[in-house]
Amino acid sequence: MLEGFTPWPEAFGRLYRENGYWSDLTLGEMLESSVEKYGSKEALIYGDLRITYNQLGEKVNRLAHHFWDLGLKPLDRVVFQLANTPENVYTFLALVKIGVIPVMALPAHRFTEISYFVQHADAVATFTPTVQRKFDYVSMVEQVRAEQHCLKYIFIQGEAKNDQISLEALLDSPIEHKYPDDFLARYRPDPDEVAFMLLSGGTTGIPKLIPRTHNDYVYNIRQSGKVGGYDEDTVFLAVLPIAHNYTLGCPGLLAALYYGGKAVISPGLDEETVFSLVEKEKVTIIAAAVPLVSRWVSSPVPLRYDISSLKVIQNGGARLAPELRKHIVEQFKCKPQEVFGTGEGLLSICPLDADEDMLINSSGVPISPGDEIKVVDDNGNEVPDGQTGELIVRGPYTIRGYYKAPEHNSKSFTADGFYRTGDIVRKNERGYLFTEGRKKDLINRGGEKISCEEVENYILANPKVENVCLVAMPDEVFGEKACAFVLLKAGETMTFEELKDFLRKQNIAAFKLPERLEIVSAFPLSPAGKILKRKLREDIIEKLAKEKASKNI
Ligand code: AMP
Q1: Which CATH number applies to 443-552: 3.40.50.2020, 3.30.300.30, 2.40.70.10, 3.30.470.20?
Q2: Which of 449, 452, 478 to mutate to test the pocket of ligand 1 (most atoms within 8 A of CB)?
Q3: Correct CATH for 27-36+55-215 of 1.20.120.450, 3.40.50.2000, 3.40.50.980, 3.90.1640.10
Q4: Which parts of the chain have pLDDT scores under 50?
Q5: Is 340 in the pocket of ligand 1 (CB under 6 A)?
Q6: What is the Å distance from ligand 1's center to 425 Cα?
Q7: 260-287 burial, b for 16+ CB within 10 Å, e for fewer?
Q8: Closest residue (by CA) to atom 15 of ligand 1?
Q9: Contact 30, 258 (CB under 8 A)
Q10: Tens digits of per-residue pLDDT, 161-199?
Q11: Distance of CA 496 from the midpoint of ligand 1 (Å)
């Protein structure tokens, strides 16, 4: 077993097998079984490229051979930051097939985050594009390699220089039969082993790593696809980063491949690109998020296309307001499906045959009969149905610990292994969940999580700053955005632009930058001397409301 990974206790493993949740299938075998069943059927579409299951299987095997040949070995960790392209899918599947563990970074991450992932996971390789949206990923990873000596290989999607390795070149070069033909079949990761790592949307410092095993994730895909109504006719459109749990496997692109459907990768997020693809490829399901849905329902573009194939628009990452769900029904004549999920595991999805009230208002039902759900008060006692409390969970696809984080694990998990989600929910008597808020100190920017502590630390590094509090302010499109309340040292001044420039120089993902600065002369304090963030949140809500009212006069 990978060191630093917390496995499920043996008794639970037995139970999950007995109940058929864990099927002892690796992610590689899951793909092979689809290739066998659906061979010449189309699996993956990107622009003019149409890839069948057979071709997908062949490309994955080819890359797996080359990776092995180059020296990547089971349990090696690699940092994976490829853009949404078919190469992303081939590479991810090839790595997990030979037991190499990708750490799934997001395209938005920059030097500070990537360098930390490499160092924390002791990664031997990175996988990045060349230049994307004007950002030069290659220079960034070379800079990381100069500092992190564990990093041996730099894989590039695009032109590679010096000792960098081009993924295209690997895909173009035939396998040299150095190993027995059946070596991939003979070599098989242990299904209980870590397959890849996701990033937590957590609250402390830089994201923690979430180890997901073959057994737990194959089940995650299979079960979420079942509840999500996936079948051979599913045409799934991936618009958000594939490296994020939601688009990857909740049910996402991998469930489309598991059930013999088709996955279409959108080259862009704009309405023209997305809805022309819906018409062209007869897309049946899109995994969307709050900011996208907000834009789509107020745009004339979608209805210029024939979108009659569309059955479901899913929403994940943050709660979609009931009003927006109603717009989906009325304007797009399809069903809104709430996907309330966590990278740590638990997924709650609204079944498509749920009554309208649940489709419009709920956060779905936990997908597995093996999910042990509790809603607890501050003392850890369960509250009656209908009352709010923190959601804690244990189950066949919810992790028992973050990677190499014993101290944090003792806070994030109960002694008996329940994961504390930090989400405040209400459960009804039928088991449906309703998200009502959160306990954790983060900002949910339309699904992108901003850890307040992390950003406060970046701001505190500014010599002009005495103290800072980052709080959520309401936003019509994103739901929430970050507002920084800053207390300056005596005699100092700071503009919003200055703060943003300072943060940009720290090479962090742009979505973490505050979108408003409030300079204060003191922070509101509790009788115990603790800063009252709640009061700051109320202050900014009030201020924004006043500004809006004065604009409307
Ligand atoms: P991540 O692991 O980044 O996907 O973040 C998981 C967290 O996102 C959850 O604990 C929730 O706080 C939030 N979240 C995800 N999906 C939803 C949703 N549909 N409704 C409300 N909150 C959500």
Answers
A1: 3.30.300.30
A2: 449
A3: 3.40.50.980
A4: none
A5: yes
A6: 12
A7: bbbbbbbeeeebeebbbbbbebbbbbbb
A8: 317
A9: yes
A10: 999 999 999 999 988 777 776 777 777 899 999 999 999
A11: 29
